[in-house]
Predict the 3D structure of the following.
Amino acid sequence: MEQQKKGQWGNQFGFLMAAVGSAVGLGNLWAFPYKMGKNGGFAFLFIYIIIVVFVGIIITITELSIGRKTGKGVVGAYKALGKKYAPIGWFGVISPFLIMSFYMMLGGYTLKYMIANLGDIFNASWGYQGAGMETAEYFQAFFSNQLETVIYTAVFVLLTAAIVRGGVSEGIEKFSKIAMPALFFMLVAVIIRSVTLPGASEGLKFVFQPNFEVFKGSGWVNVFAAAGGQAFFSLSLGMGIMVTYGSYLKKEEDLKLNSIVIPVADTIIAVMAGMAIMPAVFAGGLEPAAGPGLLFVTLQTVFSSMGAGGPLFGFVMYFLVFIAAITSSISLLETVVSVVVDLKLEKAKTFNKKKITFWCTAAILAEAIFVSLDGLGSHGFPQIFGQSTWLDSMDLVSEGVLMPLSALLTAIICGWLLPDFVTEEVELNGKFTWKKFYMFCIRFIVPPVMLLVLLGQLDSFFKLGIFG
Ligand code: PHE
């Protein structure tokens, strides 16, 4: 019996939209603008771009090549590199699995605010939130309401699953091809509105004004660690996603080009997010922030103060954030599903994707409900690893440890132990014009940077005070 095929991207544009969709997520919208503003504006952007070029593009092409060469999900792919590398493959299942536990919940939050703003547009009784929706109390009341968060989280999980179960080209690609351009145009619309608000220029100054002071003394190490940590999370690296998406690429696709387009597009969207969000924050006379507080309290305050147009603007903004989140969450789910598909194929040569998606979704739903019940630590549940919310504990294991570790080990394997593995695959599409540059970076630049990122992550989770 011939083995059942796993699926393939229909065309390059579709693949790119899916991959950029994975990269563009909450990290771009709620972390990048603030980090950039706090770490030296243009000076930070400059370092960030250097990291994207010397590390981001390099790991992207490495992961895409590993995926396409082996045609396997992340566990099978690392096993194909060598039996002893299989544990790294398992990191690549554990990380997305843990990340989904809170990413789905946050996706649910975006749905909540989307619907609340929509309700306000129509002043509709089913959704009318009216005055007070912008307050920290409203947000607190929402995330500590276990029933409500569980419902929104579950809806977000099911929407993600519905897309993944459709298959690679019929589900993920089809959805991303529409959703990502829509996100882009909505972002442009929000930027136009945001920068024309009175007082907006302060926000642009916050994000962009170069401040080279941050490099003084040992300060540059902090900037590097911050930029490095942001870059690899934002590019969805070190967790099997690009391996998985790469495994669905046709042999004639040019890996060189694709691995440049994805990081560049992700960076452009991150900078655009800074232009959309911070001017509105400053125009509203508010303090910049990061994380959920920025997205759900600060921004909502801006919308609520805008009068009649506010809810519409708010709806568009949260819709955009929702798209950014769901195109990322489908890549996380697909990575896990793809590994189970491989296991099935090994045994039976056939698989039923819908059934596999169903069972993976059930497991993810369970853990996402679990994290939702914690209500960002508001119910006094016991916490682990010295963190204050279950979200942070899940994030610590994945983003804090496994992801940088996996990127570090991958670089050592592909740079030093199996130096031809990636280059051979890239050369299937013609000369690897920047092969020397690639080899140099994967050997000498990526490992120390990933080590720095790993230390930086541990520092920020455990407040060790190594970095400022
Ligand atoms: N890259 C996404 C972001 O910027 C997050 C993400 C990380 C998504 C890892 C999938 C995997 O938010």
